[in-house]
Amino acid sequence: MGVLRVAAVQLRVSRDRASNLRRAAELIDAAAADGAQFVALPECFTGKYGVDLFHGHREALAANADAEAASGSAVLAAAAKRHGVVATGGVIEEHAGKLYNTMPVYGPDGALVAAYRKVHLSRVLGITSESDVLEVGDEATAFESGGVRVGMACCFDLRFPEWLRRHGPRGAAPADVVCAPSAFLDVTGRDHWDLLLRRTALDGQAFVVGPNVAYDPEDAVPLHGRSAVVSPWGDVLAQCGADADDLAVADVRTDRVAEVRAKLPLADWAE
Question: By percentage, how much of the chain surpasses pLDDT 70?
C-alpha cells in the first residue's frame, strides 16, 4: 500500500513576479511542514493569467535546483530539494522559439523528472484563446511518487473525459492520482469547477489534486480559487476558499483506489 500526503497550493497571483515566486516558495514550505510529500501549484503561477501576458512570463525549464532562482521552475526545483518532496506547477515554457503551457515536475533531489505540456488549450466564451500564442502539447505524462502513480492534466483538460481515461482503470497504466494545475475562470468555475474535479475522480476512480489560482476581484476576468483534493469516491477531502493564498492537504492511499475499483470494476467492461 502506498500513502502519499498531497497539497494543492492556492496562490493569489499578482503582477509582482518576485512576490509570486516568494509566496509560492513559502507555501511549499508550509505544505512540507504539514507533512506533504507531493506539492502542486496552480497553472501560470508566476504572473497574471492572460493570452496577452504569456510572453512576459516565458522561461526555460530549470533542469535542477542549481538553476537561477528567478524563474517559477527554479523555485519548484529548489523547494523540492530543500524539503525532499515532489513539486509541480504551471509555467510558460519557452523552447526552441515556441511557448508551451507546461507543468514541470521536480523530484526530492531537485532534478526534473517529468514535464507535461498542456494538450487542450483553453478557448472559453471568447475570453481566452491560448492557441493564439501557445503550442499544443502532444504527450500524456505520468510518474511515480512514493509508490503512487500520478497522471498530469491541466485546467481545460478536465473537460475531455475521453482523453483523461488514459489515467483511469481502463488505461494502459492507470494512475492513482490525477493532478490538474489550473487557472480556472470564475465565470465558469462557479458552476463547473467542483463538478469537473469530482467527475474526473469518479471516471478515473482516482484521487484528484486541483490547485487553482485564487479569486482577485480586481482582475478583468477573475479566476475561481477553491483549490481542492477529491477522493476516488468523489468526496471533497480538502478545499480552500476563493480569494487567498491557502493549502488543501489530504492523504492519498492506493488501497482506497484499489477498493473503489474493486467495488465498481469498470475495467471489466468491453469498449
Answer: 99
Q: Which helix (H) or strand (E) holds 213?
A: none
Render the burial of 38-62: b for 16+ CB within 10 Å, e for the rest.
Answer: bbbbbbbbbbbbbbeebeebbbebb
What ranges make up the beta strands (E) of the chain? 3-10, 38-40, 86-88, 91-95, 98-106, 112-117, 123-124, 128-129, 142-145, 148-152, 177-179, 207-210, 228-230, 236-239, 246-253
**Dist CA 147 CA 253 (whole Å):** 10
- Report pLDDT for 270: 59
Distance CA 87, CA 122 (A): 24
Which residues, other chains included, contact 151 with Cβ-Cβ below 8 Å and sequence gap of 6+? 140, 141, 142, 166, 167, 175, 177, 178, 179, 204, 206
Q: 154, 155, 179, 240: which is the annotated catalytic residue?
A: 155
Q: Give catalytic status of residue 135 as yes or no.
A: no
Phi, psi at 241, each rounded to 5°: -75, -165
Q: Residue 76 above 80 pLDDT?
A: yes
Residue 131 has pLDDT above 90, yes or no: yes
User: Cell 494543492 sits at which residue?
Assistant: 8
81 is catalytic: no
Active-site hit among 81, 118, 135, 240: 118
Question: Which candidate, 65, 135, 132, 131, places its Cα nearest to that of 104?
Answer: 65
179 is catalytic: no
Helix, coil or strand: residue 42 = coil
- Please indicate whether residue 67 or residue 181 has the higher confidence score (pLDDT): 181
